[in-house]
Specification:
CATH architecture of the largest domain: 3-Layer(aba) Sandwich
Bound molecules: guanosine-5'-diphosphate
Oligomer: single chain
Strand order of the largest sheet: 2-3-1-4-5-6
Distance between the termini: 45 Å
CATH superfamily of the largest domain: P-loop containing nucleotide triphosphate hydrolases
Number of helices: 14
Helix content: 25-40%
Structural class: alpha/beta
CATH topology of the largest domain: Rossmann fold
CATH class of the largest domain: Alpha Beta
Shape: globular
Radius of gyration: 25 Å
Number of strands: 15
């Protein structure tokens, strides 16, 4: 689903306009100085088309001043959105800040629209025209207050969105997709609430009166993430969602809809079969994996050692996972989640050039050739990484390679190229 980023100085009426675009007044809280806003993105629907509105407000003018802060918004908007909407107070006109932002936006390959806000009557219509000077095309006069012009603006926005892209992850440049999974009571809801912060209450009110959105858009560490299928986690009173079988189907679907899975375990309790099953689902689905050991506030020295042992013994298939120890209750180390997600996704996205791959492989094979089978020495001729997401290595050989040797190749491949947080697949094609 395409993403629209809304950029503008404080007090140009950005939040009012966003509320207009969303068609509901409660959705966005006021910009309050000193309050960082965790949740900045909202689902919108116009003419049957769904899109995401990212309100880039909430950045405080830092040491470098307002101009730098707004320019940073614009940079962020350009890197995450399919289109950018610059909101200008037409009654004030283009200030030095807008000119600086316009310079950044003109370099952008994304479409940019200029909303000339506070054009409340005919008298101020000329103010809108003056904004041609920004060099970003036709200024669109609107009145956030009266709602005038917002329909035309929405039409124009839909026009500039790229055509619906094929179902390739990341192809839209939209927020990355995260599944928050784990057996019951490990603290998924608590963690989601912790990540979304105070916005939660506001959003719950809205969810009660409109259609319940299935995903949560959450800003972590300056980036917007899409937590998929969190509807069940957001409700305070959760419906007993039937059998474990259905819960497991839902977990599987969430993992498949995501690029990276955050698997929560209760670190204060022994690891169970059910935990391992969820981890297994992530590996099978070929998604990046971040293991979150929650309830760390309840973990003492003794338990910590035992958990390390359990993980060491049981996680043989996923030693490469990123791991963070957090407490959703106290907030401890929750800030480490976003960097872990980034590392895992970066690995998941990686493609090793064929040349580099083969020079590494020929050294490896020369030093440790595959074991002889049936009197024959299989040769590895060539390797290529067929694709990322998940990284998949194809080995072209003259004969079958034993599972033990494949694991050895994978281990060495990881030692050489990293891939922390991502599964790696190795397939063998035997050439006759
Ligand atoms: P979910 O079923 O995975 O969504 O789990 P919940 O978020 O509902 O949490 C289950 C229980 O664990 C609740 O009573 C939470 O208050 C508690 N809990 C969650 N995270 C923590 C934590 O980090 N520390 C402690 N001590 N309790 C937690």
């Amino acid at each position: 689903q395409p993403v629209l980023a809304v950029v503008g100085r404080p007090n140009v009426g950005k939040s009012t306009l966003v509320n207009r675009l969303l068609g509901r007044r409660e959705a966005v809280v006021q910009d309050k100085p000193g309050v960082t806003r965790d949740r900045v993105a909202y689902d919108a629907l116009w003419n049957g088309r769904r899109f995401t509105v990212v309100d880039t407000g909430g950045w405080e003018p830092g040491a470098k001043g307002l101009q730098a802060a707004v320019a940073q918004q614009a940079e962020m908007a350009m890197s995450t959105a399919d289109a950018v909407l610059l909101v200008v107070d037409a009654q004030v006109g283009a200030t030095a800040t807008e000119e600086a932002v316009a310079r950044v936006l003109r370099r952008s390959k994304r479409p940019v629209l200029v909303a000339a806000n506070k054009v409340d009557d005919e008298r101020t219509a000329a103010d809108a025209a003056a904004l041609w000077s920004l060099g970003l095309g036709e200024p669109r006069p609107i009145s956030g207050l009266h709602g005038r012009g917002s329909g035309d603006l929405l039409d124009a926005i839909l026009d500039v969105f790229p055509e619906v892209p094929h179902e390739q992850f990341g192809a839209t440049g939209g927020p990355r997709r995260v599944a928050l999974v784990g057996k019951p009571n490990v603290g998924k809801s608590s963690l989601l609430n912790r990540l979304t912060g105070e916005q939660r209450a506001v959003v719950d009110d809205v969810a009660g009166t409109t259609v319940d959105p299935v995903d949560s858009l959450v800003q972590l560490d300056g980036e917007v993430w899409r937590f998929v299928d969190t509807a069940g986690l957001r409700k305070r009173v959760r419906t007993a969602s039937g059998t474990e079988y259905y819960a497991s189907l839902r977990t599987k679907a969430a993992i498949e809809a995501a690029e990276v899975a955050v698997v929560l375990i209760d670190a204060s309790e022994p690891l169970t079969e059910q935990d391992l099953r969820v981890i297994g689902m992530v590996i099978e689905a070929g998604r990046a994996l971040v293991l979150v050991c929650n309830k760390w506030d309840l973990v003492d020295e003794d338990r910590r050692h035992r958990l390390d042992k359990e993980l060491d013994r049981e996680m043989v298939r996923a030693r490469w996972a990123e791991r963070v120890n957090v407490s959703a209750e106290t907030g401890r180390s929750v800030a480490k989640l976003a960097p872990a997600l980034r590392t895992a996704l970066e690995s998941w996205d990686t493609r090793i050039p064929t040349g580099r791959l083969n020079s590494w492989l020929s050294d490896l094979v020369a030093a440790s050739p595959p074991p002889v089978r049936g009197g024959k020495q299989p040769k590895i001729l060539f390797a290529t990484q067929a694709h990322p997401r998940p990284p998949t290595l194809v080995l072209f050989t003259t004969g079958f390679l034993e599972a033990g040797y494949r694991r050895f190749v994978e281990r060495r491949f990881r030692e050489e190229f990293g891939f922390t947080g991502s599964p790696v697949r190795i397939s063998v094609r035997v050439r006759e």
